[in-house]
Predict the 3D structure of the following.
Amino acid sequence: MAIISGGTVAPGAQSRKNVSIYEIENLAAGADIAARPVFCAPAEGAEITKLGFVPQGSSAGVDNSNTAVLAITDKAANSIASVTYNTGTQPPADGVYGSLGTLSTHAVLTGNEVVLLAVTQGATADLPGGLVVIEWVGYQT
């Protein structure tokens, strides 16, 4: 994981935007990832402001019968954001950023709260490896 930090701010203030990038491997068609930790908020807490996926290759076999789902949750399994790829909503092209959707209220994280990734693919759905992009702001105390 790579972290690009926004810098230091006054106590009690929200910091500038930070970006954490988590690389996921190229899974075989039908293979899944269940509840993998991809981010941990700093001790002061944080708020995720944007989530995305950048494929490193081309997807194949994604349709209405063989969907591919990328889901981000907290440790209590509360949804933060997710996207379902199917016939009408295909994954982004190779090297193109795609949003993981609207963020829920669970995007506000307490100190040291862990965020999880799940990837669920239908039998023929085959997402390439890629980058999960987490944009967030931290809090200084």
The domain at 2-139 is CATH 2.60.120 (Jelly Rolls).
